[in-house]
Design a protein that fits this description.
Elements lengths: L19 H21 L18 E3 L18 H11 L5 E3 L10 H8 L3 E6 L5 H17 L4 E8 L9 H12 L6 E6 H6 L2 H5 L3 E4 L14 H15 L5 E6 L15 H18 L3 E3 L9 H4 L30 H23 L8 H28 L2 H28 L6 H5 L9 H26 L8 H15 L10 H21 L4 H18 L9
Parallel strand pairs: 1-2, 1-8, 2-3, 3-4, 4-5, 5-6, 6-7, 7-8
Length: 554
């Protein structure tokens, strides 16, 4: 069989293109990057500040864990000094904190609150399937309540234990009645609002009803702009169902980071808007509400993905309010740095293309420079978003390795694809990188491009399969993936493909295409993060499907 030769460069010289062409495209690229970042960073103005020291929040959920601290490790113990630092800060914005347990040093919270003065504690008793631990939690909480009756304002006996299926309704009500017999403060149970309707016998055992209304986590996720009205509607429904006792909204709020669920988008501005509107509603209608939560809790990402770690009003690292009163609220407070970094990347892409041409005897077509411009602009716009997502979405060394590798691929792809575009070279196949040594078309550029392509393909396939089989807590890598895939797609259009379709590329293409179709149907059209990611999966699938490798002589 005759070997079909892949031509590695233009077959003829094209008409020279003035230096003004790449300079004009670079100027357009820089202007586009600046304009998009100016738009992305536009702050919002709210009628009511989310957090205002002059109008304190009624109550906030409090967990003290910082950095590597986690309640998932039994040996974690929070010292009283750390608790005092937090509670003194929280006293500036609220008069009440809700806790969930007495483990890991949290049994010290009431005493520290009493020392500070002016803070009430809704003390939580964590219940689960371990009866011995349940008994210890109850005994300690009862003792603390008797010792500090002026600080502990109520006891929450169990948190979502029915939702988790770790206890029967009869066992739960028995513990609630036992606790009520030992203390004088009001006693309640806390769970998602639907579980109160499913387990109405708990209502008879408690002094007041504590419901959780989390619009983001509803079975039918609620958009941020409708979150407050959703909370109001559910509260009114529960008031009709349980008319004789007070209803406390024990958890409500909105996450500032994480993946979309249908139209529910976690973001800083959405969190600020939802918190502001719910607090305003509670004040106007005079009902009690507890926000979740005081501080971001990074350890929750292990259980709930990125979104679980960012429900706090206060940043977990800097220990500062996310929304200081009087300051504009933006989704990207460091947008100027992101814009500058994107512009530098765009200039670098054009510079690499220009330097490459100094060693070549021809001038590239206008389409090649246009491809360089598109690659540089898309990468420059998305670099800041990709870096921001990597910062918040990477958890553990595996997460940092995965998202760091994809971001590097997104940076290298436009740079080295620019080289290949201006000299007329095609995207290498996996065979060129990993095939038999004697059949490889080896060069430094081919090696770097091939490795970048392989890393992108592997991570894209892993994330696509994750969205098919275990999507609930996974983040959409739309920014970094777009940075990497768009230059590959443009390079694949550089010249007609000649040769045989490699099996590896065909398999990846099929997997990405089928996964994208499923994810679109599963996530819903309101989820623009999913739609964007799937569009890039399909573009990548098309790019890989067009790949060709040289035929060996037979």
């Amino acid at each position: 069989m005759a070997c079909e030769q892949v031509i590695d460069g233009p077959s003829r010289r094209t008409e020279p293109i003035s230096l003004r062409t790449p300079l004009a495209l670079l100027l357009v690229s820089l202007c586009a990057i600046a304009a998009v970042w100016w738009w992305l960073a536009t702050p919002i103005t709210l009628a009511r500040a989310p957090i205002d020291p002059n109008d304190k929040v009624q109550c906030v959920s409090y967990a003290p864990f910082r950095g590597e601290q986690t309640p998932l490790n039994e040996w974690t113990h929070i010292e009283a000094d750390q608790l005092e630092q937090d509670l003194r800060q929280l006293k500036q914005i609220t008069d009440c904190v809700r806790t969930y347990s007495i483990e890991n040093g949290l049994d010290q919270v009431p005493a520290v609150a009493a020392k500070i003065g002016g803070l009430k504690v809704i003390q939580g008793i964590w219940l689960g399937s371990n009866r011995a631990k349940n008994f210890a939690q109850v005994a300690t909480a009862v003792r603390l309540t008797k010792e500090l009756p002026d600080t502990i304002s109520a006891l929450v006996v169990g948190n979502e234990v029915l939702l988790r299926g770790e206890m029967t309704t009869s066992d739960l009500t028995a513990i609630i009645r036992s606790v009520k017999a030992q203390v004088t403060v009001p006693v309640t149970y806390a769970d998602v609002w639907e579980y109160w309707l499913k387990n109405r016998e708990v209502y008879d055992a408690v002094d007041f009803v504590t419901i959780h209304i989390l619009p983001y986590w509803e079975d039918m996720p609620v958009k941020a702009k409708f979150a407050a009205s959703h909370v109001e509607a559910i509260r009114e429904r529960m008031a009709v169902a349980f008319p004789e006792k007070e209803i406390l909204i024990g958890e409500t709020g909105w996450p500032s980071e994480g993946r979309m669920r249908e139209g529910a988008l976690p973001s800083r501005t959405n969190q600020a808007r939802v918190v502001s509107e719910i607090l305003g509603l509670a004040k106007a209608q005079k009902f009690r509400v507890n926000l979740i939560e005081a501080y971001d809790q990074p350890w929750k990402r292990r259980l709930e993905g990125t979104v679980g770690g960012y429900w706090g009003l206060i940043d977990s690292v800097r220990r500062q309010l996310k929304y200081p009163p009087g300051e504009p609220i933006s989704n990207f407070p460091f947008w100027k740095w992101y814009m500058g970094a994107g512009m530098v990347l765009s200039v670098l892409v054009f510079a690499v293309a220009g330097i490459t041409l100094r060693r070549r005897p021809w001038t590239p077509r206008f389409s090649a420079w246009l491809g360089v411009g598109i690659s540089a602009t898309s990468a420059g716009i998305l670099l800041g978003i990709a870096a921001d997502k990597m910062l918040y979405e990477s958890y553990g060394w595996g997460g940092w390795l995965q998202w760091g590798a994809l971001l590097l691929a997104g940076i290298f792809s436009p740079i080295f694809c620019a080289q290949a575009l201006v000299i007329g070279r095609n995207l290498p196949s996996f065979v060129d990188l990993l095939g038999p040594r004697e059949g490889r078309k080896w060069s430094k550029l081919s090696a770097v491009l091939g490795l970048t392509l392989a890393v992108t393909a592997v991570i894209a396939a892993e994330t696509a399969l994750g969205f098919v089989f275990d999507p609930r807590y996974r983040d959409f890598p739309y920014a970094s993936l777009t940075m990497a895939v768009v230059p590959f797609a443009l390079l694949m259009l550089n010249r007609p493909q000649i040769g045989v379709r490699p099996i590896a590329e065909a398999v990846f293409a099929g997997l990405l295409a089928l996964s994208a179709v499923y994810v679109v149907l599963n996530e819903g059209r309101d989820n623009w993060q999913a739609m964007w990611t799937c569009a890039i999966y399909l573009l990548f699938a098309f790019t890989l499907w067009r790949a060709r490798a040289e035929q060996s002589q037979g």
